[in-house]
Design brief:
Length: 400
């Protein structure tokens, strides 16, 4: 597997030369400065590619070329955005970049309620507290009918939170859910937004009345439109599972587990319509058997995110270290190494499957000097990369 690293462009606090030193082979990045829905010009793609190659690295994966809300809703500027999407894909292919990670999650990109949850060893990790999220939904967003969507145990917990939460804690919850976990990837929000709750509520309102089947229809239309470009240029589109993989905020979710993935890969059944296998996102759903899913979808997986979670009562989950948790990463890696062997038999010149250490704990001096996007600290991911590299080498040795 190709060892890659998510890098946020020239403004990233981690220099490319440092990544080369720790064993990174490929870069996962995007042109975050281009507004969602606009064309990624060949010039801008080339400039970024040359910057990466100047440090002896390869631009392995685009993460991500955003799918706009208009495309997901098949409304507004949908037609223009689809044309621009196809043009951007063609421009990427002409610059030798053929793997694109994206998601089809309405409004949100991923959700955590706590960004720096203390662990027993002194590190800090991302955490999802379902009751605190329900409080945000019911009493901060004040979404109509939200309370009835939660089980009684969670409703009781939200009432306890309601009696004790401080204004500062409410502001932190808003910042964590709307800004910090969305703003640096989705393009819908930024640190400059003065009224994030109002903006978030307006985006949610666009999906009123949109159900799972309608969102599936919109996805099928999207994939059908871009399919000729994918086939012509052999571009590997790899959808990221919903994070977390269960219903939130009354929004439809279509990539939560086996049933959704089976439908999605068959609706436009071409090899280029593939999967980003995110062991972390999938493992946070108690209904998912992660190694079984890896084996089922190995042939259609074009990119792998390696992280893991521990799941607790009431859908709470914590991001675990990479050697433990429900992700069972040793077995997942073994499955994808076997898939690589199969692919090489068919095509000796094929690239290894790119993987990246997804997220990592905040640790060591990074705790005091936290200049990173949540989940993307340097030392935590470097530790994860070392652990994952060790797993890969051990599996290869055992399989000689």
């Amino acid at each position: 597997m190709e060892k890659t690293w998510r890098w946020f462009g020239p403004g990233d606090s981690i220099p490319l030369k440092h990544l080369k030193q720790i064993g990174v082979e490929g870069i996962v990045t995007a042109l975050h400065h281009i507004p969602n829905g606009e064309v990624w010009s060949r010039h801008e793609i080339q400039k970024r590619r040359r910057l990466i190659e100047s440090e002896g690295l390869r631009w392995s994966v685009v993460e991500s070329l955003p799918v706009t809300e208009d495309i997901k809703l098949a409304a507004g500027e949908n037609d223009r955005h689809l044309r621009n999407y196809c043009t951007s894909l063609e421009n990427l292919a002409m610059e030798g970049i053929h793997t694109v990670c994206y998601n089809f999650m309405p409004v949100i990109d991923w959700i955590r309620t706590d960004l720096y949850r203390p662990n027993p060893d002194g590190t800090l990790s991302l955490y999802f507290d379902y009751a605190r999220f329900a409080y945000f939904d019911c009493y901060i967003l004040k979404r109509k009918g939200a309370l009835e969507e939660y089980p009684e145990s969670i409703r009781l917990e939200t009432e306890k939170i309601r009696k004790t939460i401080t204004p500062a804690e409410e502001e932190k919850l808003i910042h964590n859910i709307i800004i910090k976990t969305q703003g640096f990837v989705s393009g819908n929000f930024s640190e400059k937004d003065k009224q994030p709750v109002e903006l978030f509520t307006k985006l949610l309102a666009r999906y009123e009345g949109v159900n799972k089947e309608q969102l599936r229809n919109h996805f099928q239309h999207f994939m059908s439109v871009i399919a000729p470009v994918l086939i012509k240029h052999n571009i590997r589109m790899c959808i990221h599972p919903d994070d977390p993989p269960f219903p939130v905020l009354g929004l439809p979710r279509i990539v939560t587990g086996q049933e959704g993935l089976d439908w999605l890969l068959k609706c436009v059944d071409i090899p280029q319509n593939g999967l980003t296998f995110c062991a972390g996102s999938l493992s946070s759903g108690i209904h998912n058997d992660v190694p079984a899913l890896a084996a089922r979808y190995a042939k259609r997986t074009h990119f792998v995110h390696l992280r893991s979670t521990n799941v607790f009562e009431n859908r709470n989950f914590a991001e675990s270290d990479h050697l433990s948790g429900r992700g069972h990463l040793v077995e997942v890696i073994r499955i994808f190494l076997e898939e690589e062997k199969r692919r090489r038999k068919e095509d000796p010149g094929c690239y290894p499957i790119p993987m990246r250490p997804d997220h990592g704990p905040l640790m060591l001096s990074d705790i005091d000097n936290n200049i990173y996007n949540p989940g993307y600290s340097f030392y935590g991911r470097m530790k994860a990369l070392a652990e994952l590299s060790g797993m890969m080498e051990a599996i290869k040795y055992m399989n000689k």
